[in-house]
Amino acid sequence: MLKYIASLALFCSFLLSCSTSQKIDTLRPAPDDASPIVYENVPSFINLPISVKLKDIENKTNSLLNGLIYEDTNIEDDDIEIKIWKLAPITIQNENAVSGEQIKTILPLKAIIKYRIGTKTMGVELYNTREFNLNGVLTLNSDVALNNWKLKTKTQLKSLDWNESPTMTVFGKNVPVTYLINPAIQIFKSKIERKIDEAIEKSMDFKPNVLTALEKICTPFQINEAYESWLRIVPLEIYTTAAKLKDDTFLLQMGMKCNMETLIGLEPESKFDANKITLKAVVKIPNQITANIVAVSTYQDASKIIRKNFIGQDFGSGSKKVKIQDVSIWHKNGKMVIALELIGSVNGTIYLAGFPQYDDKTKEIYFDKLDYVLDTKNKLMRTANWLAQGIVLRKIQENCRYSIQPNLEEGKRTMTTYLKNYSPMSGVFVNGKMDDIQFQKIELTKNAIIAFIKVNGEINISVDGLK
Question: How far is the C-alpha of 176 from the C-alpha of 425, rounded, in Å?
Fold first, then answer.
């Protein structure tokens, strides 16, 4: 009887052990020491064509030169006093539509010039001062070049057409002196030329416009809300060709050398630093560009994505099943360690390790040669051999992957919207086209998975006008 009771108790104990969960206690592989994410980024190139209407230059020049535009009241240095007024708005035109190298400035003006003739002998001043009244239209031609972000002109007086005959005040009366004043124009010619050059230089300072536009463009923007992915552009250098005048527009071809990064997680900070951007002169900037994008997925963010794959799924067979409650990923000796927190027939945490790879067909990052780490495998063989079997491991492995296809497609869709006359600020427009996104390679750091992506196409960021 006692023997029967003992056998029954043993049988019940066996049934009880089969119907309740087993606790598994495995050793956690220690992650490598964390360090900053360091990777080699291949620079990308983006076109930055700048177009400025002559009308914009004309408007800004007129705003800078108004009313009394020049005054020299010191007669002692060169025996000349000059006052020049702008009588009507200045007009600026393309002087040579073929070569695109000169602009013509037409300046309606009124001038009063005092010219002193005489000597100073034995401390006695013997001077005779004459005042000339001028009213006419000054025409100037300017050669154009770009220097240090500014459009530089070298202006020369071409002609002066009088609205009224120049006069000289004699005994309170204006006496015509055209035959005398024309040679005298050379006296103030250089001053007017320099004044026009200074006004155009102030009007055509590209730097504030370009840097403001770049700052907007380089502010990270979200390309996929579900995956919390962001695109960040970090400018390195700006290239420029010579400025050309075509019809009524100045054209300036610029190109930006930059790093392009895709980061997953919280919104990253901008790395735009205007003080570090240099302007370099080049002969030609190609239209076709290559964007080399770095996709940075921290292990914490990758864990969140993979965790979603396990929601609502059972792993096992019959009455022996487990659910994955949580997923953690980290780096260990060149491999990825995946920690799976289980509930069900087995409670506890198991650890797998494998090498991250990229499947070009499915556009997925998966883990090749994924297997239980040694301590986990040994304890599963003793306590839950069914969980250690290959069929369960393969089912788990199928879920230990995440597709970047949505990222690529969403990234392309989002980028396409930014390439259709997108205007981050007034007067700045982004246009272009993209080919398919190509995955290049994958690298591991101690705290992130780094994917390298290449995109061919055209990206133009045009700065239209000066505000």
Answer: 55
pTM of structure? 0.57
Element containing residue 214 per DSSP (H, E): helix 207-217
Contact between 461 and 429 under an 8 Å Cβ cutoff? The reply is: yes
- Structural domain boundaries of the chain? 54-203
Half-sphere exposure of 300 (CA within 13 A, CB side): 7
Look at the block and give the residue holding tokens 């360090």.
35
The sign of the torsion formed by the CA atoms of 63, 64, 65, 69 equals positive
Nearest to 238 by CA among 281, 286, 283, 204: 281
Residues 6 or more apart whose Cβ sits within 8 Å of residue 410:
223, 224, 227, 229
Helix (H) or strand (E) holding 109: strand 102-121
- Say what the pLDDT of residue 326 is: 92
**Contact present, 287 and 47 (Cβ < 8 Å):** yes
Whole-number Cα distances in Å, 172 to 36, 183, 195 = 84, 24, 31
Mean pLDDT of the chain: 77
How many C-beta neighbours within 10 Å does residue 278 have?
A: 9
Tokens 């497609």: give the residue.
Answer: 409
Q: What is the C-alpha separation between 153 and 209, in angstroms, rounded? A: 20
Query: How many whole angstroms separate alpha carbon 233 and alpha carbon 256?
Result: 10
Second CATH level (architecture) for the domain 54-203? Super Roll (3.15)
SS percent in the chain: helix, strand, coil, step 5: 25, 50, 25
Q: Is the separation of the CB atoms in 268 and 303 below 8 Å?
A: no
Rg (CA), the chain: 39
Tokens representing residue 405 in the block: 């296809």
Which pLDDT does position 352 carry in this prediction? 92
CB of 358 closer than 8 Å to CB of 451: yes
Work out the angle at residue 461's Cα, subtended by the Cα atoms of residues 266 and 146, and round it to the nearest 5 degrees.
Answer: 125
Query: Residue 369 is encoded by which pair of tokens?
Result: 């040669």
CA distance 456 to 223: 18
Closest CA to 132 of 191, 82, 75: 82
Q: Could you write out the DSSP letters of every residue in 265-323? A: SSPPPP---GGG-EEEE-S---S-EEEEEEEEEEHHHHHHHHHHHHTT-EEEETTEEEE
| Phi, psi torsion values for 450, nearest 5 degrees | -110, 120
How confident is the model over 197-232, as pLDDT tens digits?
A: 888 777 777 777 778 878 888 888 887 676 577 888
pLDDT at 18 over 50: no
- Short-list 341, 333, 391, 338, CA closest to 365: 338
